[in-house]
Queue: 3 jobs
Job 1
Amino acid sequence: MNMRESMSTLLLTGPAALALVLCVFLPVAVVFVLAFTNYQIGAPGIGWVGLDNFAQLFGSRMGRNAILNTLTYVSIVIPASVGLGLLVALGLHALARSLPRVSEMLKAVYFLPVAATLVAMAVSWQMLLHPSLGLVNTWSSALGLPAPLWLSDRGLVLYTLSAIGIWQSVGYNMVLFLAGLAAIQPSLYDAAEVDGATSGWARFWLVTWPMLGPTTLFVMVVTAASAFRVFETVATLTKGGPAFASDTIVYALYREGFVYFKAGYASAITVVFFLALLLLTALQIWVIERKVHYR
Amino acid sequence: MKRMVLLGLLALGAVVVLLPFIWMVSVSLKPQAEIFTSSVTLLPRAPTLANYWQAITQTAIPRYLLNGALVTGGILVLQLLVSVPCAYALAHRRFRGRGVLFAAILAALLAPFHVTAIPIFLGLAQLGWLNSYTALILPFTATAFGLFLLRQAFARIPRDLIDAARVDGMGEMAIAWRIAFPLAMPTVIAFAIFSVTAHWNDLFWPMIATTDPQLATPPRGILFFRDAESGDAPGPLMAGAVLVTAPLVLAFLLSQRRFTQGLANTGLKG
Amino acid sequence: MSLCNVSKRFGDTTVVSDFSLDLFAGEFVALLGASGSGKSTTLRMLAGLERPSSGKVLMDGVDVTDLRPAARNIALMFQSYALYPHLSVRQNIATPLRQTRLSAAARLPGAGLLSGQVRKAESEINARTQSVAQMLRLDGLLERRPGQLSGGQQQRVALARALVRDPSAFLLDEPLSNLDTALRHSTREEIRDLHRRTGHAFLLVTHDQTDALSMADRIVVMIAGRVAQCASAADIYHRPANREVARFIGAHRMNILPPGVEAASFHPRGMQDDIGIRPEALQADPNGALLATLTNAAFHGEETLLRLRTDAGAELLAVTEGTASLPPQGTKMRFGAQAARLHCFDAATGLRKEIKA
């Protein structure tokens, strides 16, 4: 390769390569180093502490609480959001044959929360769930139901946040499922019909569900990855409270790192968070390779 | 009959999904007295635009919107400036280290921004760049996702077309921008929608990189506004929320297909 | 099984109109038509996948128009094979039996462990699957997935799945269109053989006349949603019922001379009727009836195609035995045809008129 060729390659790829190093690879490396130190932002000294930060995260009640809350949140949001996304997609797909315009309109409605600014919507949820001025409790009192403190009851707050998380992600999953449904060969349904799968239920289990296999897995991983990252609603609605009842990993990362400036400890949280996501991705690749790849 | 049940259930779900939107708009149109009442109603009885007037003239909402436009626009331009030539080289040039670079991009896809936040914060602090537009824009220059999408799009352009441009005497940079870039426009638009939506809605980084309300992006600004009014002025707060949400929601309603493609087909990153 | 005056409309377009067909036990019928002639829709109505807009579908004299496909006990082989990609070959073949013989609960994995009855049904299904697989030489491939099979193997799996539950009629939708030439040849014989061995009624839908002519006892030519002719392969070729069929059948398009002096030079009926001559019947003959100019001659190996223009301006094609020594373009030549190989069609209606030699 001659000189001019190399120069033009460098001109084309250099800036992006440099940006990747500075914005991604170097910071990731630094996080992994910091995780083993007691560095405090602004402090003059820095010292090795080995695995102390990790011991604190998994050993302290606070750290375990954040991890447990995140896992609870994730394990509520994944099945609910994926299941509802699939149900809505199946419904809209069936409706599209007889009422295509209505189906399109409903699809837009379900997708709306995905495009909307989550923080602003969270503020609206706050008003909706307001103990005295909110619509939800006004209606439930009118129906004679209890009017709980959705966002300040320690036993309830995590479920409220989960519900908002589901509300926000159903539309996204629905769109992915609709694409999966559209890709199923119509002749497979004809074959199922001829083969005696006469009920909609039998056709679903013989054709739809297995053919959606790869889509379902993808949707689950995407939902899991974004649920693990839950931050906006926590920061807007509860700041992890009351009494850390809604503290999550990413919010703890933010609080420890940027409110208390404990860079070392926050880095350890980051590392755990990152490894969990990597594990999830590895799981996805592994399952796709073995199970749902039909070809 | 079966169809009516289906339609009914789907419509019911849609109402639940829409409820926060309806409520947001409704409260933003209610006069103060109607909000602070014991008989809460879904729709305003005496709708007024006073809250919007107050949000626009007496708060920093317009400033937040402007910041949002500047930051998302700045990020997108910078991302494209850096990514388009590199993605072109990856798709249509052979050079030493091409495989390594591509592998690096795939690896970088695995790291969400949260993972890099602490070191980047420390770096910007070291340089004294915190609390600036630079701090809000610069860390997002590298986009593994954009590089990947663009490379895939460029790779679909026939090799002959690129060679024809070379024979016609165009330089490599010119081919990247004047041949490859326009031909990959659908992908560019999908990426632009993804990038703008992600950064307009982001709260994590603006909360870290800035403390100055003058630099607040829309979500950060809404929180400044809410904490300042501390429950006294929900009307204007909701008006502000509507104004912050409106640009993306309107863009979505105007070009639904592109939007769903931009956000869903690029589903690798939520 | 039969279709009685069946029509199908999609919106304003009528795809099949007033179509009647009887399929007798043990018969092999081909439904031959160009794409868009409504033959696939007809097949789907027979199978029960489409409901006719009017008319009836009968089986053994019973009206089955409103019966679902599975209840008709009809086997259908799809053009794309429509194999379930997530199931093994064995499971694919067993699906029709499992769906019809086992209840939804009995189909759950592990149901066989709990109920002896289910176990018995399952072992019957297995035995049947095995024997059909053996018949189609699939026994070595039973645990593979469709994606791991060649096109020909996939086709045999589709055949096996259709045959497994002993259908009363067997419908094949373009079964050979996804195979290469060599495979087509052997598969044709295989399907014929299968028909002979099983004794089921077969209905083959195809656009390829070679498929139809070589396999079927009886051919139904479909043009624009109607039956144009229904006859044996030989009759379709030698005695086409009308001008459209005559043009559609045959390796080369039949020459049609409009009424006039040139047509009449072959047969006196040519004064008022169309005269049709197949290119392979039109031979160079110094004493021939027709004088024509050679406009193009192409040597194709075993045959030579001669394009001709008559003085009246009609364009004709003659096919002769392959010969490398071609006369130069522009040569005037005489052509003739045996009277027995002439066809006569009413100029207005296009219907065949018998002529005596």
Job 2
Amino acid sequence: MSAPPTTPTRPPTDRTPSPAPGSGILTASAAFVGRATRHSLRDVEALLMAVVLPLMLMLVFTYVFGGAISPSGDYLDYVVPGIVLTCAGFGAASTAVGVAQDMTTGTINRLRTMPVPSGTVLVGHVVASLARNLLATAVVVLAAVLIGFRPAAGALEWLAVVALLGLYILAITTVFAMLGLLAHSPEAASGYGFVLLFLPYASSAFVPVATMPSWLHGFAEHQPITPVIEATRALLAGSPPGGHALVAILWCFGIIAVAAALTAYVFPRRVAR
Amino acid sequence: MQRAGFFVYAAHYVCHTQCMMYTESPVLELAGVSKGYGGEPVLRGLDLSLGRGVHALLGPNGAGKTTLINILTTLVPHDSGTVRVLGLDPATQAGRIRHRISVTGQFAAVDEVLTGRENLVLMGRLLGLRPAAARARADELLERFEIATAGGRRVATYSGGMRRRLDLAISLIWPPEVLFLDEPTTGLDTRSRIALWDQIRTLAAEGTSVFLTTQYLEEADQLAEQITVLDGGRIVAQGSAGHLKSLVGGAFLRVLDGSGTVVQEVATDGSAADLARVSAEVAATAPGLRVELRQPTLDDAFLHLTGHRAHPTEDSADRPDDNAPHGLEVAR
């Protein structure tokens, strides 16, 4: 290497820029929730999918399969909670795609060079997913009522249903947010999501576990979705959810804790080169 | 008394500015910096000390330019050596560095779903501006970067040049002490490239130090006071464009046939004797040949230093200044 010649330095300016103040967790979270909400509202296709797909699913199960599954015609009351949970999965899956996009487009890398708590970008995705899924859920329940679903739940039970579903959506969204971080592309992220969407089928969502082959009983009874569904079903029927609610809540908090811990570990280590 | 007071003040002022000049710590400092990925070395023991101003890191694809930018901007840790950005250590003081730098990466990190204005307002909020101030600053920057009319449109509809301008505008919401630009004009057409160069010059004049990477020699020549040539993870030369060109030696003798087509270029040491000798040799090969002198370009310097061109030949078609003859044999 040759010796660098000394070039004349520019006259020192007295206008050295001052450091940027940056933002705290609250300001940054608020900004990212606003961003993710705009994303949700502008991605009309995803929003439609989040609402239309569960609607279709409900119509198919009640009108196409319903007769065969339950000839007496009371299948609607049984299946609605299952549809609602499946729909929560649909809506949450796009969180993985959104997070993977932020990783691959350099958005998260840029945030990491700024005086910003960059992890709050995930908070934005999760909160927007919660809002999106609660909206989709409300539409599905409304449609179910239109085609004859008659829940016996009182105000208190409804409140409990909303809280439980909110918790479930939060749990599944944190899992998808983590998958989005791990995926190497938005396409792969949506692929991971697909696997998770099969879980409701191997639960008591659409048919009672007792009707499944015996080797599946253990899994179907003890996987997290079954207690959530059983508790929701009981609440909508106006009866006490019993032990199901507690198991469901424990599952959800457990999943959130594990997914959040993994995310906190992976996020700072995951940098696109 | 008044006059004496003025002189004391003036003397004090001069001393103050002089002292500033000499005590100012380097903007960037590297000592023995190495970095590898999966056992594959990318940077091999870099030593560099840069003061304020515009600096270009020149090198071909795979030289390690982006890796160095990632280290300097606190994105990835280096393996060994010492790094100081504005006197701060990225390993332990990344948070403090982030308040004082901005980065525009190789691929425009702008939000396609949001409008240009929304991108700027969001980033302004994150940098600590209140909502009204963030909106005002967004409008100001949209104007300055000539995207005001497209400010309300989604970025997905923007051209490559508009995205780069928006990306740069985001980096300037809060003027940084050091701006890092990773290949800011790669893939841009000539007009957009020149417009971006103007913006970078304006910035530098306003007191922001700029550290940019590029594979375009013309870009380094146009913008930078200091050029560092990186090749294969090593610094192979450093200095002003003039200094680098002088490393080549003397002028090139360009040989043209009767129709004015360049048929050969011969490097000389610039002395009259060498030029005469080369001219005589050329004249002996064929009748009717003419010669002219060409001063060395950065391209020649790069070839001289590294043994290969700075960028693949297919890039040369869209280069801003293509007077360097590609595909021609340069004899020594």
Job 3
Amino acid sequence: MKAPLSWLRDFAPFESDVSLLADTLSDLGLVVEGIDRIRDGLDGVLVARVLDISPIPGAEKVRSITVDAGRGEERIVCGAWNFSVGDHVALAPVGTVLPVGMEIAARKIRGVESRGMLCSAYELGLSEDREGLLVLGNQDTVIPGTSLSEAIGIQQDTVFDLALEGNRPDALSIFGVARDLAARMGIALYDRWLDGSGWGGWFDGEGSSAGGNGSARGADVAGHDIYAEDILPGGTPTGSSVAHVVVDSIDLCPRFTASVFSAVSVKESPAWLARRLTLAGMRPINNIVDASNYVMLELGQPTHPYDLDLLADHTIRVRASRSGEKMVTLDGVERVLGARSTGPGDDLRDCVICDGDDIPIGIAGIMGGASTEISASTRNVLLEAAYFQPMAISRTSKRLALRSEASVRFERGCDPYAIGRAVRRFYDILLKTYEDPSGDGMASSYGKGPDDEAPVGIAERPVMYLGSLDTRGDLPRTAPISVSVSRLNGLLGIDLATRAIMDRLERIGFRCTQLPAGVVLDAGSGGVAGAMVGSGEAGDSGIQDSSGDIIEVTPPSYRPDVLREADVAEEVARHIGYSSIVPRRPRSPKVGRLTGYHRRRRLLREVVAGMGAFEAWCPTIVDPESHLAIGLRGMDVTVENPLNAEESVLRRSLLPGLLRSAAYNIERREDAVRLFEIGRIFPYPDTDRVNKALARSIAQVLDEREMCGVLFAWPEDGVREALQLLSEISDTFGLQRFDIFQQGYADGLPIHEEGPSEVYSLAGLNPSRSGLVVASSEMPVQSDAVGECSPTSLDRAGALQPGTAIGVVGEVDPDVVAHFHAGGISAIHPDGRRIGWLQLDLGLLLDAAPAKGEPAKPISRYPSTDIDLCFTVPREIAAAKISRLLRTAAGDILEYVKLIDVYQFGDGRDRSLTFRIRLSSLDHTLTDTEIAEVRSRCLDILERESGVTLRG
Amino acid sequence: MEHPAVEIDMGRNVDVGRIVQEAQSAIAAVSDLDALARLRNSLLGKGSALGMARSSLGKMAEDARRSLGAAIEGARKEIEQSVDQQRKVIEEKARILRIEADRLDLTEWTEAVASQRGHLQLVQRTRDELEDVFVGMGFDVVEGPEVETDWYNFEALNIPPAHPARGMWDTFYLRLGDPETVLLRTHTSPTQIHVMESGELPIYAVMPGRCYRRDTPDSRHLPAFHQIEGLVVDEGISFANLAGTIEDFTGAYFGSGMHSRLRPSYFPFTEPSAEFEVTCAICRGEGCRTCSHTGWIELGGCGMVHPAVFEAVGIDTERWSGFAFGFGIDRCAQMRYQIPDMRVLQENDYRWMRQI
């Protein structure tokens, strides 16, 4: 919100130390986001009286004007025709720079020297009016030669741009800001603004809210004639009535007032009013609408003026919308009402204002319609000033995606008891728009409305106030809050005396009563005063002060946000200043630490980065096409309201994102790319799971899986590099080797389908060069301490079973590589490069890693011996099978079995595999006999179990 | 060493001193190891001057024999020493030659095409650093789901349906359950609820993670971003403790001389609520364009846990109080590395990542 300093000063005598004011505002939570120092922009522009107008021979469009601007006669050539001798106009002498940026120079026009320029309102930055000159009122009281800004009441100003929080409806007004600021600075507001001494209670009553629909009352204002009788809602218009109001939905609109003003004339607002609106960020429209907007900005209460004569039957009906009902709002957009739920608890009722034909003419509290708009021909105005149910306004505003200055205020909660003041202020401002400038420094209307009415003095009563109707339902009331001084001090970490606390609160309109000693609060209170108890118990709770620890605090009706003790504490803190609270570090009784999962994940990242991979961050919300492109089956979790169709589902694999990033880099001539990402994938849940989560019987909607995906795209990369990393990872985490389960080898392991199929999907991979990473039967089963498990497994418990797939390793399908353009530059790799891929489920991998480490195996002090065996192995038999058999055969003197050489025979069927079997004993040097026994056992078992023999 | 001229039989003088001298100059002239070996033999062998002198000893009188013998032995040692010395000289020369022949211009090294060491992502690294600071302050690190129900993301945090404050978060909703019941979390605050629901008190925890808001990407916003949330629930926790924690963190993470301040703000789940600002890292508080000449940069939000939140998770507000805070991890990284456009974080451009 924009708050001009001059406006704030209407309420209290603020000093002009702008930075002090700004700091204080910010410290109050009315954060100053910008300070605009507004020059009047009219430096040097003078009021000039037109003395003579004479034609210039041969010129049809311009005339020579003689003016008096207090410096003797001056001659100006001017092309405007809307003024006559004796008028007061604005003269920009030579050298003036106008707000539009134009610098005035002496010119010769049609042979006549022109020393200056007579200006239009537009050229002076005062309005959009470019038609003719700005003509001031034709009064002798304006002295030629005075500065224009003085003559029309415009000053230099400072505008604070405030960022206001949603809980402070009271601060959405100049008055509210001034009230808070004055209280903090210890400055008294001017008496006339204090509640109850002029602005309060016109027809607001004493904050009572008796009665429901039908309890409307008329109201009188002393000094004004009431022309019409007031009409009860629901009643029949009488012959003398001027308007009729029916409130059907009093729950949506707990208070509705309608006030009728007749004999208005619609015109442009005077400069001071237009300027204030402009400084506050609103566009001046006409004096009626501007007066309404002025009141909203000043007091925070939106009002809406209707052209009474355009209201069918002179009737206003407030009711809930009917489903599918439509209306066109002032902005020309057709709005469909009650059409879409904004969430649980939404009954789809939008509050609308209708006319006597029951046709919607406005969306209550948000935006009116064009049909009853104030226009040049308006003569009678019905001013609506109401209190709408904040939640209803919020829902409707959200449903229609329509926000306005009014809706922002209503949805935060206006003061339901300050409506009368707003109506009265409206009348006051409206009258001022007709005042002549001789009155109190206000300018006359310089506009030229279609009627070109001469300004009229206030004595002529340009406007008649006819009366008001006030319909009330159950209005919210601020309830007294019992506040424990000791607890408030404890919450803030300060030690403020009871009196000081009350003083801060009273300054901002809270009523405080200190209760006698012995009153304590109910447990968990914050709203209701507790019962009286014996003094002994009071002593127990640490309350000794004879004057009592409890104060009863009643917030003013403009602070609907203050509901409990903590809210009161914030008010106290704001008004002593947050910075006055001395910081004190709490002592954590705990030793802070990362969980085992976190530690292992950090280690994993180091290991992967150690392989030359760069860590990437790819989008979680992806194009559904990216899943199709890698052939990932199953359902996607869809975003209901995506930013665009290309990013509309949650990813179920890390592969597409990393492929895209690899392609991005390869396109930019980075030839060697390895990327990895640790991030979550989001498998589609079954309905049961969703329902359970919504019913809060489980904590997590989706079985989110944190995955580590590594993409190998150096020029010579492939699955081997991925396997190498897998081996490094299992070494790092002290895991036994994983088994690889690959299609086409008959002796595969049984696979346990742990978790969603995404984990063990080979989608996007080359099936002949890819496989599942499976926990081998040798995997130590982990049952970990609380808090050590992965954070993504809130609802998952249990250890990793042998045979569980924990990820995939392989090569990306060449077609997929081509699809993502990740194949590289064709000159270097005519066939496109191979891309290796490893994706592991970290929940399974890291939870399986031993938290405290396996006991380290002793190493042998005796020399080791190698047996290298070279076998001819048919294609159908996996090398893993051979090494598993060799391991079995070697027995307990085995250090390791490694495949050390592969030779593919020309026939493409069999290949020669060389295994190294390293043997050693912890307690002796192996004898030739022992070694020979192992060798023959190996050969026996291989021949028996697989039919494989030594290469001949 | 003085070498006396020794008179020996056969009437000939043996000038040991001269023998040594001549030998030494011969040795010094040799430049390869084979020649040196040969020279040594010729200087010390039977046919050499010393050898002949030694073989004549037997015929000499006792006294003369003793003195000449000692002189010969002395000369032999001296020559051996010179040979050894010269050998070292020759070997050193050869070594220098060998090494010189192996010379490499260190600037002619051809860099491997591929970077052998990878790089960790900047946001992740920033997150690690933040976690470490809080671990040092006695906090645990906890993570929560990215997909949440309305309850965790809003309701339990004192933001009922249609509450106007929901406008503070542009939410991505998921097509699961009833409309707008399942969503991508808009902040890390729901993890607070998970932690408090787990029931263990006191709580000193930070909760980092990825969040989502329906913001069109620009230089300061990405639809996905990272936050770190802090939560302390204990007996006697006050707003002063919150201010102290923020101040300690600021000094520990941003460096000494960097301070924090709190400003009133509004969050439905804290009361009193505050925004926290830290000394502008660019101007160190002097005032510059980055901080709009205030000397302060807004970092995050915080406040005392709202009693309604405690009620939602069943924590007794008579006994326990607490505070919470949260701020952007990406924003910390942006401040620290002065990144003008956040979008670079998600481009995964090697040229950029390599610098970090």
